[in-house]
């Protein structure tokens, strides 16, 4: 009986060889599982990285498109080999009351109610309606740098703005703009007389609050937006040099390895086309997006 017990105890254990075999089989199975799991995990990481890059690029393109569609007609310009885009941002667009209305007697008949394009200019006139998008207080001058533009027909608007030309298409930097109430209409008052060079066939008037620049730096792999700086005649392309050195800036996208802006001016019958090509890359993954934005350029 005692011999039988010893045999049973011996059979209940495992030999060293058996343990080694089990460990070897386990290692083989683990290695095989790792091979099967690694590829899907790497694929998931790559997919997540690509999705992040696409989301970042699409966000940048949407912001550029939003600014482009609110740009002053004919104010878009490209420099720096296609790495710098500038435009004048419109805070509000309205129709002004013209001096003559096809023989119809205007409801508002005071001398200050309509805009004259006569020699010497004007400093006070009514709008057809009230301002809605612009933030202001009646009787308080709009922020410094606010301009009024009428019928800008080409890139000469930058020269007019920088030089304070009169007659011109945009009011000078030193001319402040104030909004006054006039019944069911708002009235604009300039701090000094200004002669607008051209009358708009559609009586369109634009209130410009700031230039906007998008600047690509492929060395730093960034796309940055600048605003709140003075209008200058030559297009700024260096962030460390005035006027961009004193501007407000915001990072729009990272991982930018290539960036190209292309501007095709339109005609009175056809919108201009802004093309933006962005390439973003990270850890071996690369995406490239091309977006075309139709910009109205008929002032």
Report what the structure shows.
With 299 residues, this protein is of the alpha+beta class. It has 2 domains: 49-88 and 209-295, no CATH class; 89-208, no CATH class. Helices cover 24% and strands 32% of the residues. The strands form 3 sheets. Strands 1, 2, 4, 7, 8 and 9 form a 6-stranded antiparallel β-sheet that branches. It starts with a helix and ends with a strand. The model is unreliable at 103-109 (pLDDT under 50).
Brief synopsis:
This protein has helices at 2-12, 16-69, 156-163; strands at 77-79, 84-95, 122-126, 147-149, 177-182, 185-194, 204-217, 222-227, 248-254, 256-264, 272-282, 285-295. The protein has 299 residues and is an alpha+beta fold.
């Amino acid at each position: 009986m005692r011999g039988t017990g010893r045999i049973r105890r011996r059979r209940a254990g495992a030999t060293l060889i058996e343990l080694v075999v089990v460990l070897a089989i386990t290692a083989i199975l683990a290695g095989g599982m790792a091979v099967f799991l690694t590829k899907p995990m790497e694929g998931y990481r790559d997919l997540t990285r690509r999705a992040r890059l696409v989301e970042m690029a699409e966000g940048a393109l949407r912001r550029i498109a939003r600014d482009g569609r609110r740009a002053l007609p004919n104010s878009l310009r490209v420099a720096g080999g296609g790495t710098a885009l500038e435009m004048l941002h419109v805070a509000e667009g309205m129709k002004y009351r013209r001096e003559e209305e096809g023989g119809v007697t205007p409801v508002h008949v005071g001398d200050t109610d309509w805009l004259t394009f006569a020699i010497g200019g004007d400093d006070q006139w009514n709008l057809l309606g009230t301002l809605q998008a612009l933030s202001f207080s009646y009787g308080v001058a709009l922020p410094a740098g606010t301009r009024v533009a009428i019928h800008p027909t080409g890139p000469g608007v930058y020269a007019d703005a920088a030089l304070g030309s009169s007659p011109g298409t945009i009011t000078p930097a030193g001319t402040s703009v104030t909004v006054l109430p006039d019944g069911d209409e708002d009235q604009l008052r300039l701090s000094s007389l200004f002669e607008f060079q051209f009358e708009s066939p559609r009586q369109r008037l634009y209130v410009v609050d700031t230039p906007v620049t998008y600047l690509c730096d492929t060395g730093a792999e960034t796309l940055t937006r600048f605003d709140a700086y003075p209008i200058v005649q030559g297009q700024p392309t260096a962030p460390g040099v005035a006027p961009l050195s004193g501007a407000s800036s915001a990072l729009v996208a990272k991982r930018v390895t290539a960036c190209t802006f292309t501007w095709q001016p339109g005609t009175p019958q056809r919108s201009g086309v802004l093309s933006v090509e962005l390439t973003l890359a990270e850890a071996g993954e690369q995406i490239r997006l091309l977006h075309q934005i139709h910009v109205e350029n008929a002032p």
